[in-house]
Structures
1.
Amino acid sequence: MLINLTGYEKVRQWISGVLVSTMLAASLIGATAASQAQEQEALPAGTGPKHAIAMHGDPKMPLGFNRFPFVSENAATGGEVNIAKANAFDSLNPYIVKGTAWWEVRQLTFESLMMRSPDEPFTLYGLLAATIETPEDRSWVEFRLNPHARFSDGTPVTVEDVVFSMELLREQGQPNLRRFYSKISRVETPGDGRVRFIFGPEGDREAPLLLGLMSVLSKAWYTENTFNETSLKPPLGSGPYIIEDVDPGRNLTFRRNPDYWARNLAVNRGRHNFDTIKLEYYRDENSKFEAFKKGLNSYRLEADPARWAKGYDFPGTRNALVLRDRFEHSRPSGMLGFAFNTRRGMFSDVRVREALILPFDFEWMNANFFFDVYARTQSYFDNSELSTTREISEREAQLLAPWRASVRDDIYQHGWRAPINGNRENARSNARNALLLLGQAGWHIRDGVLTNDVSGEIFAFEILLNSRSLEKVALNYATTLKRLGIEVDVRLVDTAQFQQRRQTYDFDMMPFRWNGTLSPGNEQAYRWGSHEADIDGTFNVAGAKDPAIDAMIREIVAARSREDLVAAAKALDRLLLSGFYAVPLYHQETDQIAWWGELQHPRTTPLQGWSYGFGLSNWWMSGTN
């Protein structure tokens, strides 16, 4: 009997291979499982579930607190409040780059795992999540969902929704969201309503709090509805209000959800009191103010000192039907300025940018336009302990030591001192200094026009505006620059075009506000990080690319104490001021608010003031139940 040894050998080898492969696979699976188990075991121990978390130090409100101190025990529910908006909208999705969505959609209809208190620098209290746990090094964070949490259609908020939201925002959300959530290396769902996020090497001490502020979206709803396109379909959220009516581009009406799941939580007592909130679009500030005078709007945050001083003499105020007041706060001013686009060749030289700041005549404009109400902004954290208006500290000097060449000597010593104009002598001196700096950068006046020595290019640029509120300031500034041989075109465009050009950095100079915060962190990378300079839609409108700035942002997010954070923020401030990324304008140190008398506000103003977030959430209407 003959045997086909070749075939037999093939079968034997195949069987042997299968056995070896199976054993190898089993070995690998076991090794992977062991590795995962060891990795999980290697996670540092948590400090126990807590009701709140502060970026530095301890939360102000203890476990079991009844309500925040800035709300009223006597707040009534009911009534309608109308608020004017000066920009149109074409979307109800506040999480993507495409389109323009009013930020109140996020504030009123969606919720995050935790709520940020406006009465502290950076502290979160439980909302969708009942507790938070993280280890001392904050390398991971675990949330336990409130079992009562519900979307407005009555469906429960689940761990699956939380994980889905993070993944969706990380893949398709705005650049800052994608950046924040890219720090997550893996997600675990241990059960019992818990979800744990483990951070990779890019994680930092602020990361657990940023996860706490993540909006939670409904997986079921966004599976049926497209996320990454503009839409005017009211989204499904879990917040206190539901979008009831949409008049595209013109107004939105929010109705208080009578079945809101969290109305009795401590963080919500005395808040979300209006039955209806209506936002209406007006073309400019003048039409907004006229609507307010007629009682068509209930509330007005007044930014125009001239109008505050002389514009409120109308029947409503004379009859005490309209009230107004200045509310003090401890919120940093931030920086409102005419931002340079350093991606443009003429603005790429820091000497040019400094030169163009010198002639800005704040003193004349403050006296003639603003009744001397404004203070000149001289720091990105003005009006707070984070500003660099004082001598440099030892800790700041240590942080800046590797980057000493990036900080100008005078700014290193005592911060930036704004040039003083306001009279002919000062104006001439500043103009001379400006021309000297421009000359050093290769620009000289020829036949009355500032011209580049090499290319022969004429120095001309455009200031892009979308509101008349800054038009007279821009025109006055343009007139001043014309004396230096610089041609400036002040161009007013509609909101949609302004937004599109801002997001794609298609501008020379434009007004921009970098909002102030008492607890700077990862958002500074979104505003100033080198990586963000070439990504459409970020807040790095100036196009800053400086490794010293990147390093100081890392120091900010790594700070383990309030003292370290303050020093790092001041060091960053000195670097930004030395880069002259904007022509600093001005700020007020109080919130000027006018309202029709049926509106009521609590006696205590929170640390951040009423204009922080949606401050009206804490007000109410008199004569309601």
2.
Amino acid sequence: MANSFENPHCRILWVSDIHFRGKYKGNLNAEGKLKQLYDPFLDKIKSEQQTSPIDYIFLTGDIAFSGSSSDYQAFWDWFIVPLYQFYKELVDNERINGFPKIITIPGNHDISRSDVSIFETFLNKYNTAKNNFEQQSQLILNPDNLPSFLKTFENYSLFFGDNSTYRGINKIWESFFKLDKNDGSTYNEKRLFGHVIDHEKKIIIILVNTAWFSIGDKFNELLVNNKLKKIHKETIDDLVTRGFTGKEIADTVDFYYRELTESILKMRDRISEYGTQITGREILLFDNIEKQIKLFPDYIVITCMHHPVNWLSWGEQYDYDDKGSGSYRFTLNRILAKTDILLTGHEHVPVIKMPEQINEQGNGWHLKAGMFMEDQIDLIEAAKYFEHSRFSIIEISADPYLFKEKRFLYYHPSGDSAFPEWKHYDSGKDEKAYTYTLSNKKGILAEESLPQLISEIGNFDLATFLYNRYGERKYTVKELAKTELYKLYKTESAIEIRLCIVPLKAAFSKLFVPTPFPTEHFLDEIIKTNFVDSRLLKIHFIWPDFLVSDQLKNLYINGDEEHKVIFGKIARYSDMLFNKFRHHFFERFSKISEEKKTKETVELAQIIDFKIVKNIRFVNEPVPFWIFKRYCKPKKTDI
């Protein structure tokens, strides 16, 4: 089988935690450092693009430092425009069909801090004693208050959202950000949360916003102003009214301060940097996303959010109180249960950090990003100011389901004449150590989709299938025959002739091993007709697995087991019948000998020569339905 990553099904450039400041623009010190960082980065992307096209660019939060318009303007000019110029040249010269699409999700640094009224409203109404976070959160996010919530990401959405007013004179926005074939309308509008479905690449991208309440020192300032100072004044007024004076007031206030500080710190942990952060929980239509995932069970699900799971509160991940109620709140575990690859930023983990399995069942993988660029590079005087800068390229194979993360680390010059560069990180491990199996796929075959699947068999792209599965060059494939039970194809090389039989609707028992096994099998005439010289004759049966056995097909429809378990059962069953078929097929020719020639064997020998039989090789290949669909070309329709 060919290397699964020689021609990846999907390729993603993943960059996180850029922390770009508008004030870098015009600062000679900062701009010099940015040039040293970005020029080699762009060179590396050019090199990787030549190896295999990049389909998506993911930016998983903290694109800007303070969520200001000047931050995004400078980032756009510094990062987006040069990238656009590179890809535009490729498109204009018809070296690629189109631009990679940029997918963004905000981080805590992407919150606009110019208008904090919604945070003040929340804090004024939040009751520390009652811990009424859920009630206040729902109040803030109800449709009447939604505009205030969206305003906290106003500058971010201005540049990346559908209603962007800064799109560039050369249609930069349309080229990189416009998603024509996208079922996730909630993501299209503001780029805050939602989902994207790519039917060509067969991936579903879920975008979760974990940035709200995560505004660092600004939140702490609001917290003190709205709670501590207010309570301080109320406490002193109350003590004076009650007749306290001098040291009594001071001691009592000191006691209250300690109690209040502890209470406020708990409150901050509950709703600030650590705590309930998932934004839009009440308006992210995850029920609809779940339906889409079930409708396309072979699609790979990639979830992007800025904060890793361990930065979220327990209640956001699990839904315990409402279990079994029939209607339950948004909780992260609903998404993670469906996720194959989880991408997060924020923690700036070192390059040696390996992916983790999402849960104890081992379903899905969690990849944590490093930072692309540290903050305040204009003030950093150290020689290695980009010591931990890194990014990744994720390659996905859909046949079989695998992915590989290629990590790139920024290397500093070792001498005055040396130039900094981005190098593929080498930890000393074998390349296979960075390849992971996507085992989260469930074998869900909707019964109502079976007629469509069966109708698509006739459009099977055999040439591409053979190339991807066996690494053979793309031979010309000729269709020889079509019956009610199968289609027959022929392809040949200098050393072999391959006859491919793709069953249309018959199960093994009907086509392979009828009872009794006939003296003259339907393959005999096919073999005799196509054996023209001494080349090896391969007869290759390519089975859509849902045609192998009705009983095993029902396991898919019920969806009770993982796809690999069900397909394993189908493969074993088909091999058992296939071996039985070969035994009966060749057994007929063993009876042909000079000593014993019956009328039956003489007639058989006239049909097919025994010398031909010695050059025959049978190949049995059941194909999982989710793989089979990838190789079915859509039928042409008259316009």
3.
Amino acid sequence: MKITLGVEGMSCAACSSGLEKHLNAKEGVISASVNLVMANATVEYDEKVLTQSKIEGFIKEAGFKSTGLFVLKDENKQHRTQKILLIAYGALTVVLLYLTMGTMIGLPVPKFIDMHVNAVAYTAVLFAITLAYLVYGSRIFLNGIKTLFHRAPNMDTLVTMGVLSSFGYSVYVMIMIFTGHHMYVDSLYFESCCVIIYFIRLGRFIDRASKNKTKQAIKDLVQITPSKAVVRRDGAEKEVTIDEVVKGDIVVCRPGEKIAVDGTIVSGSAHLDESFISGESKPASKKEGDVVIAGSINYDGYIEYSAERIGRDSTISEIVHLVVEATNTKMPIAKIADRVSGIFVPVVMGIAVLALIVSAFFVPIGEAITTFVTVLVVACPCSLGLATPLAIVVSEGKCAQRGILVKKSETLEIASKANAVVFDKTGTLTYGKLKISGFFCYDEPMREAIVDCAVSLESMSSHPISAAFDALGAKKYEVEDFRNMGGYGISGRVDGRNVMMGNAKMLDRFCIDNVHSDDENALAQKGNSIVYVVIDGEVKGLFGVNDLIKDNAKEAIKRIKGSGREVIMLTGDNQATAEMIAKELGIDRVVANVLPSEKADLVKGLKREGKTVIMCGDGINDSPALASADIGVSVHNGTDIAMNSSDVILMRDDLNRIVDLLKVGKRTVANIKQNLFWAFFYNCLMIPIALGALKWAGVVINPMIAGLAMVLSSLTVIFNALRLRLIKFDKGE
């Protein structure tokens, strides 16, 4: 069982990695992955051992709060409240800095609160203002203390230790001032506490706004479906909310309206815009018996359809679930940040404490505490925590907008290294809409019976070839003992006869003499797939079945080859047919006459050669090869998404989307590397400066500057990750 829960209270990489370790250590948890940006945790667990409430208890144990099953919320109201508070405290911060530093630069300060004229009143005002800031940052302190007790210190722990240390020392100084020692007024650090809290909250506000931007593509998917629907009940039309629609309801959709739930048209016809799911701008023609998908826009017709997939079972819900789940998986490169963040906070705490002890021997205690606080604040690993998940969420959303569903984020990293792309032929490079283009009959008196047997047997098959025989319109008999012989053909008893249909390999397998190879070659040279008809052990007929190459296939192959990657075509067809199609597509390497298991062996062979392989197929006969490849890609029809086992699903039948996937993968990995560089560079640079390494050159920082520097480091990573939203796709728009 797998579940995704919302999590409150995470602020940095140490939070997410600490919670992830805590969950993975629990009995009954098979695997757990925590996403800082999406603020959720995906847990796969043993239902016999655990329940949702127990897992939520584990989250509470780690110092965080579960908000139940994860849903994308509209956070605008909460965002507005935080914005008002931020502005108010921003104004108070300006007043505070004017009060504490105004006299230094010659600005007039009212005498009754001038630090040099009335130290007691000045101190009392600062103390009161600081209490307001402590309330403003109370969640930070509660979380910091809680995670420290749970032995999983994080960014909030560093801030809490720094601020409370500075505040505690300032309270001591305040007592000294109140008892008449006014010379201590220059040793107050109340303003540092306030400014640090403000910058932390400012940074969190910016982070949250940026995270919301990264999730926008996913939110757009959620908002595609309408909030209301018109259903026909008891002979009358009634408008209901989307939650009131039940399976089996007849739903009405007029021109200009959206399809409310997934279903099947029972009356009428229309052209529907399904571009949100397929990327195809051309409206799809729909008639009675066709499937409609929630969120599609009805251009021009009146239709009634039966509600079939509602709520979480709908196509859109499945897509959102897949995209969210993908953002919760971890790239191999992301594990670097996880490993570092796991030891980073304890190490920083150790460095800060050591700096405090050593400094206390050489400088006044107030200055030593300043160094201690500065190190803690400047080293907050916020940018490190954002480096990977921000880029992943943006990229996953970008792919979803293009109709590319990536099930695991590690797929993007693999795609950036892929150097071999393998295609199945039928249904992938070709449309799979086959037609009979040639027929040799080897028993003329039985011509009609041969065709009848062939059509009857093929009617039991799900292979694309069966549609070509169905178009012959012959008489159909009942089929007994039907068998699908993977890679060879099909067999069964038709009208009392033992019938087999398949390729030349089938004849070899059953030791049937093939004296018709010339006819086979003649059909193959014209690009036909070959289907022999064997009745009661004798070859009675030979069909040539033709297919059309997809319009976008040639362009996609050209672009993949142009990027320096090898392209290979696999097919169960004979060599002549395969080579003819490969030549037209510009594919140099062809492997024909292969069984499904042999396709998988070839993929494994490529991997043994050191290649990173992408396999693109129809997801049915090619499933062994898709599973064997580093990335399995299947072209989907837009329904039953959750049942598909490939790594990537193309919602639009356009192979150019593979090129888009390769591009997004390359850009994402490059972006993450840049983010990690800046995050590591920042900490490597700022911690020594906070310790006073450049004091000899006159370069020093205090806690307030450290807080600002932390915000700027996060902004660098945020804006760099958001650049991924600007990815442009060359063709196949």
4.
Amino acid sequence: MSWLIITEKQNAAERIATILFKDVKRMKKSKILYYYSPSSDAYVLGLKGHILELDFPKKFRSWTKTNLLELINAELIKEEKEKEIISLLRELAKNAERVTIATDYDREGELIGVEALEIISRDGLKVERAKFSAITKEEIIKAFQNPTQVDFNLAYSALARQKIDLIWGAVLTRFISLSSKRLGKDFLSVGRVQTPTLRLIVEREREIENFKPEKFYELFLDFENFTAKHPERYKDSEKAKEILSKIGDHVIVKNFSSTKKTEAKPIPFNTTEFLRASSIFMPPHMAMSIAENLYINGYISYPRTDNTVYPSSLNLKEIAKAFLDSDFSREAKIVLSQKEINPSRGKKETTDHPPIYPTAVASRKELSANEWKIYELIVRRFLATLAENAIWEIRSAELESNGIKFLASGRSLLKKGWREIYIYSKAEEVNLPLLRIGEKILIKNKRLEEKETKPPPRFSPATLIKLMEKLNLGTKSTRHEIIKKLLSRGYIDGNPYRPTQIAFSVIDVLKERAETITLPEMTAKLEEEMDKIAEGSKKEVEVVMESRRMLYEILRNIGEEKVAIKLKEGIKKDKIVGKCPKCGKDIVIRKSRIGKRFIGCTGYPECDFSLPLPQKGSIYISAKTCEEHGMRILKIKGKKTWSFCPICNYNEFLKSQKKS
């Protein structure tokens, strides 16, 4: 009787097999790779994530013929998603007396393992769970020598999320798309987490649009090698000029202080902090995808974690020593030259996985350019958390001229500490020389600067993920995917993120007719309920039923006709590209009789202005405007994504025609 090991992915299966067994044979059936050890009579099979898929029964598949209130309470079915893998799984499990689930240890991983067990479960089959946080020799051997039990409550919490997200997503997406008559590939999606996130972006954009800048005036004095600033702002320029005119040709130093300030090193990476930091290189979903590959290939620990405190079981000094002969030898020497290594600690401490840390030494040659960026970020962050704090000298001065006070400050880095390692945070020094109280200093220049108050900033990937975490929108494993979905559906674009016109329309109508859907409180409450399932204090069926009731009440009171009117108005606005240069009316994206898209004037037939458009790829009207022509920038998403102003693009086309 044999032993069957089930992993989440094929490349994880290969690594685990080669770590556990010396006589591994690579096997293949119907294009599916698996691994066999003759000496241990052990098989290792990698799945493709979820091999079962939740769906509605076939009678509910038609969007136009389905009653949405019935859809809410439809009994969901599980379908076999990966039929070839499932067939091989059944075959390998026939003669197995022992099965070890070695999927990723989190909610999704536990559910993937439980799905496999549902297919092969039988009386007498011994089931174990191998839990690990890194696919390294030490971790894998330890996990398989000390197996635990499958956590069914953890799996059921993931199943509850799957069911709730499917029901809410399907019902609300169909409702909005049918109301707006946006079907096919241009359907409008609505989601339990997606929609409150989109509302945050839309409302921030409204704040920016409605912001009215106010002018104010500030006074500055320039000296030989530093600058001082008057502590007050003035709304009245005449008042500011009056104060400036009273200043003499020198100042007297009234107070001066110099203190040392410690700047704490950064905390260890959890998923949120990692995604925020990596957003300087690439979108969050891409960073997570690369991190997962690095984990599976044994370079880093599991990247989906809330933990910001290294467990005592980690030998941090030994991990740092491994980098002495690497691209990070200088940084490792800085850490190891310390008398003691005291790692930084964040506020979140969990027991499932450690913070993200490097588990193997890699060179630039081994990894792609993007993989190296992520790997280097993780290595540098890890070493920085072990380094000493930075120390600054902070200088402050109070100056006076004819009774008018000015303040000056300076900062210089006395000890680099962690800043010598973590190169992503700039240390800006400001010069302020040593001054003596009572000293008279000649003013080189007096100036008044006119400034304006600034609107709140748009959300960057880093600031949006941080806010989503604060509001309990989504999880560490899903936030980057939510943002990716908003981008792919054409609701937002750019970096920082701007909402498109259709985003305004969808959020406005939902706020008016079903505001609960757009608020983070409802989503956060459901997240708490799913946590209770994982803890064992609530049943999956109970939480799913409660969410169905909540959705039923929302849909029953939403008012289909009013929603349809408002969405159609919004979609009409969403098609406006700009004003016609010939007649001043709106120009919009239109389709010809034979189905070709183009830009045409709404004043047709009186005005025949038109511009051609590319015929392939999904087209979106972005929130950005061409400064030269006042046209909205269009975005085409196909094999490649590119943006253009329709007039600039047409002018370039005409130039190329003349040259040819």
